[in-house]
Amino acid sequence: MRVALDTNVLAYAEGAGEAARCEIARELIDALPEGAAIVPAQALGELFNVLTRKLLRSRERARTAVLEWADSFEVADSSWPAFQAALDLCTDHELQVWDALILSVAAENQCRILLSEDLQHGFTWRGVTVVNPFAEPRDALLERALQTR
Question: pTM of the entire structure?
Answer without folding.
Answer: 0.95
